[in-house]
Structures are given as C-alpha cells and as structure tokens.
Amino acid sequence: MRFSLLPITVARHTRFFWCLFFLGGFVILAIGLGLRDPWPADEPRFALNALEMLKTGQFWFPHRAGEIYPDKPPVFMWAMAIGIALTGSVRWGFMLPSLLAAFGTLFLVADLTKRLYGIRIALLAGVALLSTFQFALQARTAQIDMSLTFFTTLGAYGFLRYSLIDAKNIWWYVSWIAMGIGILTKGVGFLPLALIPGWILFYKQGVVHHPTWKQYIKGFSLLILTVSLWVVPMVLIATFGDDSSLTAYRDNILFKQTGERYANSWHHLNPWYYYLASVIPWAWLPLILAFPWLIKHWQRRLRRRDAKIWMPLSAILLILLFFSLSPGKRGVYILPTIPLLIWAVAPSIPGLLQQKGLNYLATFTIIAISGTLLTAGVLGGYGVSSLNELSQHYGVVPWNWWMTIGALSIPLILWLKPHRGMLIFVIWMLAFWVSWSTWGYVLMNTARSPHDMMQNVQRITGKNASLALPDFDEEFVLQAQQPVVQFGFKTPLEKQLQRAYAWVKQSPDERWILTRADQAKGEACIDQSEKHDLGIQNSDHWWLLPGSAFSQCPGNKKSAPLYEAPTTK
C-alpha cells in the first residue's frame, strides 16, 4: 500500500508546487496594483481612450479628449475599458490588461517548457522570464506591447506545440486566431510567422510535424476572418458615413500606421544596429550574461538537429532582422522575442547555473548595478549639488530607496557567495521590482501624474470654471477636475493659441488657460502678472492664467477646431 500511494503523493506535490509557482508569479506581477496613476508617455492616452469609450459608448473608434485617435486599433482600449468598468477605478483598472497578459505569457512559457523538458526546467524557465528586465518592466507598464506579447506568445505556443508535441489541429488554428487578435492589438501580431522558415527546414529533415497546404489555407483564413471582425465594419462605417474624421482614421490605420510606418518612419529613427548595441544588453538581462556559454550549447544542438531550440532561436533572429530593417525603432518592439528566448535557453539553465565563470560575471554585474544605486543614494542624501538639481527637476527624492535596494546585494552576496551569482542576480532583480512597484510608485506618482496639480487648478479656478489646454498632454485631461477643451492634437501651436484666445475672451471670468511657462513667456500680449505658478510637472514648468490675462491677445475662432473632453463634463 505504501509503494502504491507514492506516485499519487509525488503527483500531488508536483501539482502543489506548480500551483504555488503560478500563485507566487501572479503576486509578484500584481504587487503595486492601484498604487499609482497612469504615467506618460503612453499610459494616460490609452486610459483616456478607454474612459471616453465608457463615457460616450463609442467603442468602435477610439477618441482622445473628444477628438478621434487615429494611431491604433481599439482592442487594447477595450481591454482597459473592461478593467476600469470591473474595478470602478482608473487606478485599479488601467493596469489589468498588462498584468493579465504578463501572467498569461508566463503560463504559456512554463507550460510548453514543462511539456518539452519536465516540470523542474519549466519552473526555472518561469523564474528566468519573471526576472528578465524588459519583461518585468513592461508587465508593470500599461502599454500595448505586453498585450501584444501575450498574443504573439500564444501564436508561437500553438505552432510549437503542434510541431513538436502532439500535432493537434486545435493548436494550429489557435495560433492563427491569436495572430489575428495580435494584429488588431498592434499591427505586428503576425510575428509568430517567423517560426515557419525553421519549421520547414526541420520538416524536410523529418524532425517535426508539419501541416498540409489545406491547413495553411484554413489557418490564414482564420487570421483574415479574425481581423475582418473589426476591420470590415470599421471600413464600412468610415466609407459610407458622412464624418471625414472617420475616413481619415480608416486611411491612417490601414496604410500610414502599417506599411508606411515600417518603410518610411517619421520618428524614433535609429541606426540598424540599435537593438544589438542599445537595447538587448539591458533588455535581456540577466540572460544576456550567459551568451558566451549559450552559443556553444546552441551549436551542439544545431548539429543534433534539435528543432526545440532552433525554431525559437531562428524566429528571434528573423524578428530582430525585421525590426532592424525599419528606420523607426523603439526598444519595446523586441519584447515579443523574450518568450522565444526563454524557450531557446530553457534546457541549458541547469547547466548554466553550474558555470563558475557565469556566476562570477553575474555577481560582478549585480555589484556594479546595486553599487551605482547605493553610491548615488548616499551622495544624494549628503546633498551633492548635481544630484539635488536632478531630484528637483524630476520632483523625486529617491535617496533612501536607492540606498536600501542598493545595499540589499551585500547580504545576498555574503549569504549565497559569489559562486551563486545567477541566483543572487535573480533574487535581487525580483526584490528590485517589488520595491519599484511599492516604494517607487509612492515616491514617483506625484511627479509622474498631475493628479495633485489638477486638484490645485480646481481650487484656484473653482469647480465650475472651464479650462483650455493648448498643446495638451493626455495626462492633464485624464486628471482634470473640471470641463476641459482642446484644439486638435496635431494643430500647429500658433493656431491653437489663436483659437484659445478667442475662446477665453467669450467668458473671461469663467475660462482659464493652462500652459507651459516657456510658451506663455513668448507671448508678449499676455499679462503675466495674473499668472498662478503651478511649478514643475513632468519636467515642464506650468502656469495657470485667467481669461482676463489675454485681453490684449488677438483671437481667431476659425484658426482651429474646438473639442470638449467628454470625460470632464
């Protein structure tokens, strides 16, 4: 009886540790939820999009401060709107899509790894993902890219599970549907297709399962059908309606934000080697430290025709090549490569943890990072002028936080010893992100969010006064406590100001303008003696001026459109 129960006991313990791992992972990812407001650059915009959807009931076309927002499809905004509606709070709801996407990605990475290599390596792979710098950062950032990464990971999971494990058609079709939703989330949801060239190569060698041409056609049809669920109604509404802004949205989202943005980018211009030199060295920490040892391991795996390694690895290379060929590059674009990297590294992790050179390299790296934070914290606490000026500019005094998290490496190194450097690095990194999501959020929120400033604006103007925001940033509209108008996000500033002057003169006792101090100083017609100096917010100096301060400024009602933000009514 004792021996017959042993397998059941082991199985129960396995399930227990498996569930415990995911519970711990969820807690680590969720810590800090509700402690901060949306921060620039992208978070306030998407939160405002979602809030306007809930306020107006217009879910098919995203809007920003009453004006159509033409740069992204609405899927991510729908997810954020659901989060806000379920929690009843922007603070609690705006981070839910990224949190759930990160947790879903963690599950997919660990589950496929368990099916390929067993639960021990799967748990190590999950810890590696949680401690990878860019993944941990984006899991705590309410940008589109974490949600995109979930759908691209689901697409890759389906392809790899079909080809390497069970060849079940359901996973083949799930992949194409996931890519369709990924495209509706952010254009490049098709990235899992980068697995197919390596897939074909190994299929010809008889190593992996491969679908038939009919399955390819069905899969591609599912992708087109998924994308069409939103694109077709959007095109019909925009084409046959009488709103020119919807027509502009259609053309922008279908053409400018896709092919033109890739081939002829107009911002974030960087050289071809940008990802290799400026992103991967920090984004893939700590795994990047292991590359000298991994390269030899990968070479052996290639000679053995190990598709489990080379399919994700070849996809990473193709994705990096794809983004490197575009003149416009942002570090966050390569976030979807991290789950693929974990799959490519996973079976090597136990051996890597035994490499003395790698562990000492990891120890040296963590000493450099934590030592920099500790030194900066001590010098800032002692009042070094350059650091104090930096602190005043950003409105944050982080010295105690930096000293604490920097000093944490000392007991870790003394306890675990330098020959366990990778373990030290992982523990320190997880502790850093927990501190970032708690202590850091509390320290930085006032500086990154204008919530307090906009409450001060209401106290000065009175809650019934209206506020104009020329050259506005979304976070000010999101945190506004009174009616707000703006004059077109892409309208030239000079024309916005002319329209703002005309608007404020119509009721100078009840209308105010919030503007950057440097803009107001450049306008000789403004009576600057009436200003209310609001100080620094998001690195800019802000003034609040009553309508009477613009009596000498020439206005023009026709110079720009006027939009009323529905979330502030």
From TrEMBL:
InterPro entries: LipidA_mod_glycosyltrf_83 (IPR050297), RgtA/B/C-like (IPR038731). Its EC number is 2.4.-.-. It comes from the Bacteria. It is found in: Cell membrane. The chain crosses the membrane at residues 15-35, 90-110, 116-137, 170-202, 222-241, 272-295, 307-325, 331-353, 360-379, 399-416, 423-444. One of its GO terms (molecular function) is glycosyltransferase activity. It is a multi-pass membrane protein. Residues 71-226 form the Glycosyltransferase RgtA/B/C/D-like domain. Keywords: Cell membrane, Glycosyltransferase, Membrane, Transferase, Transmembrane, Transmembrane helix. It holds the Pfam family PMT_2. Its main location: membrane. The keyword Cell membrane applies. This is ArnT family glycosyltransferase. It comes from Chromohalobacter beijerinckii.
